[in-house]
Amino acid sequence: MEYRLLPIFTLLNLALVAIHAALPPEVYWKSVLPTTPMPKAITDILYPDWVEEKSTSVNVGGKGVNVHAGKGGGGTNVNVGGKGSGGGVNVHAGHKGKPVHVSVGSKSPFNYIYASTETQLHDDPNVALFFLEKDLHPGTKLNLHFTTSSNIQATFLPRQVADSIPFSSSKVEVVFNKFSVKPGSEEAQIMKNTLSECEEGGIKGEEKYCATSLESMIDFSTSKLGKNVEVVSTEVVEDKETGLQKYTVAPGVNKLSGDKAVVCHKQNYPYAVFYCHKTETTRAYSVPLEGANGVRVKAVAVCHTHTSEWNPKHLAFQVLKVKPGTVPVCHFLPEDHVVWVPK
């Protein structure tokens, strides 16, 4: 079952930012990491696409939020509360709004405590991202499908705002109310899944953290690796279709780190949340790829050298036909995931 994530989530993000007038997340990045460029996966979700439109408006009935933002129109006006005339949601976000789809029942393939499901094996595009480290050399041909998160519209909230919103299964009803999510809906179940994954313990040797703001991601990653870091993400160079196709590894494969890295995976939530985990049994690579249709990808790959603690029925083992702890298991990162490595 799939659903369309409401654009209202992104619009509410901007409204909350305007209301609280918090310090922009990119300012904090520059203060902590002045010589480290932001990867595209992060810059893409600093602001909603619709701020570039000539006019944008949203009205949430009842005690919702009313926003009007326009270029050359005197800035952004925000009204909170008020007496809306209806109980529904009316959104105009310009032509850039695109439908997005999320699978309700699937677990993240990048969380290694989970067994794979039949649905994932047949339908999850991330299946095609797993490979063996021995194949990471020029000339290797791989069938791959690069994806972005199913909620690409979910943008970062400043930490001041994110910290004011409960992020807990025990208070999920409060969050539903804040974002006008109906309990029992598919949106509600997906939010519950994300909270559950964030609250579960990690595997042995893994330090796990769910960052609800860019600032908290910076703090976690630099506390584990120091501030002399490189932060990278997968980038599709040409604006071409990147569905499942055959890619060839081109010359220029580059190892980015020793065996230490923090990898952050974007989650399905109304605003940007990243599941980050730090291990000392991980090697990261920059891998140039050339697709059969001519598309070029600057891919980031992560290879896990110690998999004996993973669930024996994890998706990677099912796809690669190997057993835990036998060989390094690798995967390319979707476009909206991030890797932090020491320089």
Describe this structure in words.
The strands form four sheets. Strands 7, 8, 11, 12, 13, 16, 17 and 18 form an eight-stranded antiparallel sheet that branches. The protein has a five-stranded antiparallel sheet with strand order 9-15-14-19-10. Strands 4-3-2-5 form a four-stranded antiparallel sheet, covered by helices on one side. 22% of the residues lie in helices and 27% in strands. It is built from nine helices and 19 strands. With 343 residues, the chain is α+β, with helices and mostly antiparallel strands. It has a domain at 36-47 and 119-342. The termini are far apart.
Summary tags:
343 residues, 27% strand, 22% helix, BURP, 9 helices, five-stranded antiparallel sheet, globular, alpha+beta, disordered N terminus, eight-stranded antiparallel sheet
The count of strands amounts to 19
The succession of helices and strands, N to C, reads: EHHHEEEEEHEEHHHEHEEEEEEEEHEE
Query: Rg from C-alpha positions?
Result: 20 Å
Strand content: 25-35%
In helices, the fraction of residues equals 10-25%
Looking at the chains present, what oligomeric state does this protein adopt?
single chain
Structural class by helix and strand composition: alpha+beta
Tally of helical runs: 9
**Which spans of ≥5 residues are poorly predicted at pLDDT below 50?**
1-11, 13-21, 49-105
Biggest β-sheet, characterized? Answer: 8 strands, antiparallel
On the 0-100 scale, what is the average pLDDT?
Answer: 75
Report how far apart the termini are.
43 Å
What gross morphology would you assign? globular
Signal peptide: 1-21
Protein name: BURP domain protein RD22 isoform A
Domain BURP: 130-343
InterPro entries: BURP, BURP_dom
